[in-house]
Amino acid sequence: MTGSPAPTGPPYGALVDPGFAALVAENRWLRARLAHGRLLDLAAGVLAAQRGISTADAADHLTALAQATGLPPEDLAADVVNAVAGTDTAADGAPSERRRSAAHRLAEARRFRRTSVTAEAASTATEAARTLLREGLAPYGADNLWLWQRVDPGCLRLAGYAGVGAAEAAAWQWIPPAAPEPFRTVLAEGVPVWLEEGPTGGDVLPGASAHAARALLPLHRRGRPVGLALIGWPRPTTLGAALRRSLTGLLEVGSTVLDTADDVRPAVSAPVLVDVLDSLAHPAALLRIHGPAEAPTVDHLNDGAAAVLGNPRREDGAPLVRLFPLVHVEIARMARRAACTRRVQEAARLPTPARADEYAPLLDVRAVPAGAERVVVLWHTRTDPGLAVARATARLQSAATFLDSLADGETSWSEQAYAVFGLDHDEPPVPLAGLRERLYREDGGILTELLTTLTEHQAGAQAVLRVVLPTGSVRHVRVAAEPLVSGGAVTGIAGVYQDVSDSRRTEAALSATFDQLTALHQQAETRHQLALQLQRAIVPEVPASLELPGDLTVAVRYRPATEEYRVGGDWYDVLALPSGKVLVAVGDIAGHGIDSVTGMVALRNAQRALAFTGDSPRRVMGWLNEVTLRTGGGTTATAVCALYDPEDRGLLWTSAGHLPMLLLRDGRARLLDPPRDILLGAVSAFSYREQRMGLRPGDTLILYTDGLVERRRQGLDESLERLVAEAERLGGLPPDRLVDELLGTATGDTDDDTSLVAVRVGGVPGT
Predict the structure, then answer these.
(1) pTM of the model
(2) Which of 464, 468, 548, 694 qualifies as a cystine partner to 552, CB 3.0-4.6 A?
(3) Taking residues 108-117, what's their average pLDDT?
(4) 623 alpha-carbon distance from chain centroid
(5) Where are the strands (E) in 444-567, listed by range?
């Protein structure tokens, strides 16, 4: 059984042809028959053991009993299994429960058993979760279910879910070892937590409503913890003792589901890892991850690591603290998180001994997952000046996080925040409200407005403040913050500080120039045309119909934001490369204004240059991510990058958190499910994935930005379904008319700008 969540149909509600629908229906029927047969086999095994007969005779006896009693065979089988398991969903519950008829309790027990067996027979953990919700939990009013699998060393990976969307599931895919409450309580104490009116104290849990009831249940199998289940209701709900027993019994099958779920992490043999580490010139160590209460151990050091650490005695299983006495806690934390999330963990700077009598900083420390139990730690020391300079340059543009608790007055900073404000690490962090004494007097009003928006209006906000450092110098610090709300009250403030002093002068000049232009053109239509001309000057629109290699016909449109001079950060590109391939791309910088436009110019030009290297889209996207981190001033963006090869009509593409491309083929439209990779500018050294598909003559590929579909009061899935329907209705039009009609019928109402690209493959369909 795989633990990866599996969708029940095509992505984003795309239309399905009848043949595919028939296969889905047949697959479900076969699974239902499998669960039916499993229940009958269990009952036959019980009868065989009780009567001392063969399982074949027991099966015949079960059939005869069903005929004699008139009961359906699966009901009779459920009764037999329940009698042995002692299942009675409310036999000793509250008085109201005890007054229920025996027939009602019997029917409930049968449903309980059928649900459990059907869930065990499911091919995925998500399918099992849907069965448990639909047939077992929905009668109790629950409308969502989450199943997390415990993964060494103590983190949780979402294995299955039901009743929630894919976007929300992706946000809760991983829960690290330092889990938030009440996850930590359930994992540490192994007891359920029942929240009849939702989480308290500012805790955040999955679910549409903060005050809706939830139940968190630990899942054990053969005496060991295998995961955690969360049941959610749409509203506050009384969770009585009998109901709690019923839910606990029903979710026991979740333990079986998670215990048999596959761990998707590939195993890498130790000899292979040792050979790879020994081939590296820079220091590297192989760590083994144990339980959450036990520190990782060092299984191998390559020659570079041994030289840096003073040539210690090498032995398998050496304590981490002996080799890294100053930073063993930090490295252990990085290693556990890498093993948990299966992503590279990076630290900017850690101190550690370089020789027995000297200490030197480690730069560019990375923890790389290598299977379920091993992590490779790589680092460079100050002996590599090139890397040190690169790291120092990157740190100038890094962001620092902060968290202010209004309940207890506590404030926490990330390491970089101390450098932003020129403070030593042994000084206490300053809350956002306490910065007033460190600001220019003229900026006090800006801080007051920022705090008012956060605490009284309960809305996110950002501002740039001039901070006077202890040395007397002035630093421009951008503050972006969000309120933490619980029970209708603000309980804290979370946000980011960023030193923007270096770019502030250029930004001020651009803003002043733009303000002067705006003042010269007071009429709304004139300002609107000015914004449109500026955008077109940056990303000129291609002709109505552009012919490219591979018999491609391309049409592109850009529509600026409806709010007059709000210049956006959308870009697009269609470019024939020297290799004969064709680059097709769209992207969207977060926000509006001069910052977004300048960021867009940098990314579009960088993407063009990187595409000329001839590398694959995933490599180009990875490099573009680094460009965003180093030149974007905190900017983030989404993008799709695709390469079309006219030789075989193959399309190789990757996505950085962008909306799915749309394919028109044979009169039908469907959305192409993109790789679930993060947006540009979020995480350094991220490895993007790519997908390949073949295009056919007559196919039309549509790329777009969110201004085409996003609506203020409508879910994204519904908006995308409407786009699919409109594209299918207009699919027979030439590309230039197709993009015009799609823009005319677009449902987006967020005042955002929109880029739209349609690429049609020439030739005779079917060839």
Answers:
(1) 0.37
(2) 548
(3) 70
(4) 21
(5) 461-468, 474-486, 489-499, 546-548, 552-559
CA distances from 391 to 115, 197, 362, 384 (A): 56, 48, 11, 11
Please name which of 547, 656, 665 lies closest in space to residue 607, comparing C-alpha atoms: 656
Q: Is residue 584 over pLDDT 70?
A: yes
In the block, tokens 């760590």 appear at 287
Say which residues have a Cβ less than 8 Å from residue 496's Cβ, sequence separation at least 6. 399, 400, 401, 402, 478, 479, 480, 481, 634
Which of 634, 623, 620 has its CA nearest to residue 682?
A: 634
pLDDT at 357 over 60: no
Q: Which two tokens stand for residue 605?
A: 């030009």
Residue 410 DSSP one-character state: -
Question: Exposed/middle/buried for 3, CB within 10 Å: 0-12, 13-18, 19+?
Answer: buried
Distance (Å, rounded) from C-alpha 158 to C-alpha 148? Answer: 4
* pLDDT of res. 425: 80
The CB density around residue 717, as the number of other CB atoms within 10 Å, is 13
**Closest Cα to residue 630, out of 392, 348, 386, 367?**
392
Q: How far apart are CA 595 and CA 666, in angstroms?
A: 42
Determine the length of the chain: 767
Q: Tell me the per-residue pLDDT of 198-235, one tens digit each, with 9 for 90 and over.
A: 887 667 788 767 788 999 999 887 777 888 999 999 89
| DSSP state, residue 430 | P
59 burial class (0-12, 13-18, 19+ CB within 10 angstroms)?
buried
Distance CA 446, CA 442 (A): 8
Buried-exposed string 631-664: b where 16+ CB fall within 10 A, e elsewhere: bbbbbbbbbbbbbbbbeebebbbbbbbbbbbbbb
N- to C-terminal Cα separation, the chain = 40
Mean residue pLDDT of the chain comes to 76
Contact of 461 with 481, CB cutoff 8 Å = yes
DSSP state of 708: G
Q: What confidence tens digit (pLDDT) does each residue in 247-303 have?
A: 888 888 777 777 665 444 444 566 777 877 887 777 888 998 876 557 888 988 888
Q: Do residues 367 and 338 touch, judged by C-beta distance below 8 A? A: yes
164-173, 543-552, 562-571, 757-766: segment of lowest average pLDDT: 562-571
pLDDT exceeds cutoff 90 at 391: no
- DSSP state letter for 540: P
